[in-house]
């Protein structure tokens, strides 16, 4: 059996925060940088300055991705460096609506993506998106 060697030195972990995205509502970070990788927490489709949720899934998707973008940029990266996304939907019937907005935030080669329907999202949001990005 072959075991992978674990390097003696691990990259440092750094917390990433920005006021341009909603603050954490619990004991977690908006994002964590590990080496050249950035892992964001899920971002709801809420306005960062007011905490308000717009009524439609399209508007919430745009705000969610704007919040993701603000965090990714605060870490020194950009949406073009996102390599994986996970989309949590309150209702899978909204997939095409979300996909239409989502497509305007990414270009080819598109990030890998998972999309799942969940029973409930925090604050009764309609969509939540998290990403993994490379920091160049």
UniProtKB/TrEMBL annotation:
InterPro entries: RidA (IPR006056), RidA_CS (IPR019897), RutC-like_sf (IPR035959), YjgF/YER057c/UK114 (IPR006175)
A Pfam match: Ribonuc_L-PSP
Alphabetized CDD domains for the sequence: YjgF_YER057c_UK114_family
Transmembrane portions of the chain: none
Family indicated by similarity: Belongs to the RutC family.
PANTHER family per the UniProt record, alphabetical: 2-IMINOBUTANOATE/2-IMINOPROPANOATE DEAMINASE RIDA, 2-IMINOBUTANOATE_2-IMINOPROPANOATE DEAMINASE
Protein name as it appears in the record: RidA family protein
Species, as recorded: Paenibacillus profundus
